Amino acid sequence: MRKIRIDLTKTHDVIGAYKSIDFSQIRKDYQDPGTKYAFDVLDGKYITGYYMKLACFRHLRDLQRQDTKDFPYHYSIDEVKAILNFAAQCPEVKTLKPVKLMPFQEFSLVQLIGWRSEGGDKRFARAIISEARHQGKTYLMAIIIIYSFLIESLGQSSQDYLVTSKNFKQTSKILSYVKTMLRLILNREPWKSLGKEDGINLKSLATQSDMVVMSEHDNKLRAITWDSGQYDGFHFKTAIGDEFADPAISDVDKISKITSGQIDVDNKQFIQISTAYPDSTVPFHRDEKHIIESMEKDWKRDGDTYLCLIWAIDNISETEKPEMWIKANPLLDMPEKHDKMLRDLKTEKDADSLAGNLFAFQNKSLNIWLQASIDSYLSLKNVEESITPKFDMHNREVYIGFDYSQFSDNTAFGFVFPYFDRKGQPKFFLYQHSFIPWNHSGSIENKERQDGIDYRTLEKMGFCTITEHKDGIINTDQVYQWLTKFVFQYQLKVLYFGYDEAGSYQTANLKDALLANYPAWNIENIKQWPSNLAKPTKYLQDMFTTHKVTRLDDEVMEKALLNATTGLSPFGISVEKNRATLKIDVVDALIDAFYKGMYHFDEYSEFNSDLAKFSRMDEQEQLKKGIANGAIDPEFLDDI
């Protein structure tokens, strides 16, 4: 196949890319329901959102590149037929009868089961499936786990299977659904005979046991709650996590216990299902973003073993367009359900709107991620759109803000780099580095759980430093050494250093050391009064709203930006947080940097006078400037 470079990260024009490629041979060779759905979506037969168009485009592109050196996967029609034939026999637990699957459900099943690696294992070792509530996710996942338990276990013993959710109530609900479906399946041939051969006790499926056992092969399907966290020692062939976007499920250690236990397990798969939640900083949504980007970079081929299927509206404005709700609620395509489901959704929207809780409807029924509340300082959309893949910080002018930690808070530097983009527009690049104390939490592991941030991984990426103090408190010497090394490494020209002393002797010590060694930095203690901070606080907010700031994909900064809420005073807005574990230290540090940085591009600011600009130049730059102005005779250079 001729290589075609498709990059959708900027244009997001999936349909344009689809129409630019000849898929006629694929359309001819593949008539299965999954591939037909992909073509139907891209041909406009169904109303779907951007993410589903992207997933369907990925499927067709992968069919073109399968079984090549750079893409050692293939689409098995035999596996597709096997899972769809099995699904056609699975009863829905309310009606006790099999139901005809919708095309979008068939697409999900064949993506999970049909794609295979060279050795025949499932290609997608991990998967995310996200859609609005009441779209049959539990029914679909019950089919998958039972298929794996009954069919994929043939000839194997001592295999582990998992269903899990946040707490006992939610985990028991999905297990009960699985048990009921399994009991109904095993009441009919040929499954009845297979169940007896495997030693599955039908009576046990009607009990409150948290396990289904194949006594003849010692295969076990377990229900384990996230709250218990007892995933150690198991090697799950198939694991399904329900409502895994819940903010309570943000401990990366627990997730890694599931996935690390799957290492060296044949045909493994870990599937996370959920709708959107108010807290957009959870691992579930971060994974969504990363896989979406990898699909957009069609030419790069990252993330080939991670599946991401998201049914969601594209824009918050579609909240007022019921005809677009089908993007998140694909069951609306079922004629017999359409009218009643649409009425119910409208009723729910009206009720939430009257209660001032519209974002709950947008989260759960339209499957869109938002800022946590109407009081949020910044919107998720603006924060995510500010990401840039790289920025060269060498030899730049910079404004620095500093916020020292109190108790369990982090200590943060905020760096504001003024620059002009390729179009000559003035912008600011934002960078941060945080120092992480753990004394108040007892350990760095507990600190990570409380904050919902994997600090140890982010430390390796350079975004933070876990304190080296033996008692887990901030080490001021470490903070000072890091800053001076950072400034020297990038040869930064520090225009301003703003800090909040707030009675902290540690901050006073840092300030004294900087004054002694860097007197030209324009170091200032910023009084943290609303009258002082309202303007830079509003300015930073406006810079995000007008897309005049950029930043790296840094989780520490992102979490702080999204955690910040807006307070009001007679002087303007301020930033606040709702609870201690919501970190906003980086935002405070950036506001301190913008205390003077906000004036950088003002023609008459103290930083833009001819004298100020000249004083910031190095010796060579000053000489060149003097020659250009006629103030220095070029022959003078020869004399020196």
Automatic annotation (TrEMBL):
Residues 103-277 form the Terminase large subunit-like ATPase domain. It holds the Pfam family TerL_ATPase. Transmembrane segments: none annotated. One of its GO terms (molecular function) is endonuclease activity. Signal peptide: none annotated. Residues 302-596 form the Terminase large subunit-like endonuclease domain. PANTHER family: PROTEIN YMFN, PTHR41287. This is Terminase large subunit. It comes from Oenococcus oeni AWRIB429.
